[in-house]
């Protein structure tokens, strides 16, 4: 039996309610949009490093994330910035000094990612 406090989030099953799940603004589309934001080999490591340390320069990210190239790090940081998950601060100095941190939107995503981690840990043993 479903927890009564969760019934407001229940996925609709009636024929007329399918658009709430499968429509262009439905649950499936929203989750797919979220997954697209974090898809890419290096995006999760970037997000977790920024969550753990608050702020990072690209050189530190490059050092802390094994096997990532400068090109891929820059590309994924730009994509995360475009999606509003990461903020880039350029201090306009010579030599260049640029820092990255999570935005409020990025911070709001982290409990979801931590819940996914917990789900994986708990269900890894069941497989």
TrEMBL record:
Keywords: DNA-binding, Transcription, Transcription regulation. It holds the Pfam family HxlR. One of its GO terms (molecular function) is DNA binding. InterPro entries: HTH_ArsR_DNA-bd_dom, HTH_HxlR, WH-like_DNA-bd_sf, WH_DNA-bd_sf. It comes from the Bacteria. SUPFAM superfamilies: Winged helix' DNA-binding domain. Residues 21-127 form the HTH hxlR-type domain. This is Transcriptional regulator, HxlR family.
């Amino acid at each position: 039996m479903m927890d009564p406090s969760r019934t407001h989030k229940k996925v609709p099953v009636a024929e007329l309610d399918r658009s709430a799940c499968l429509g262009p603004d439905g649950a499936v589309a929203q989750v797919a949009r979220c997954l697209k934001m974090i898809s890419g080999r290096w995006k999760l490591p970037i997000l977790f490093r920024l969550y753990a340390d608050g702020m990072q320069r690209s050189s530190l990210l490059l050092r802390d994330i094994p096997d990532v190239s400068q090109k891929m790090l820059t590309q994924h940081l730009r994509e995360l910035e475009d999606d509003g998950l990461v903020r880039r601060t350029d201090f306009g100095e010579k030599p260049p000094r640029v820092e990255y941190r999570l935005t409020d939107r990025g911070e709001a995503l982290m409990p979801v990612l931590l819940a996914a981690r917990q789900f994986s840990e708990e269900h890894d043993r069941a497989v």
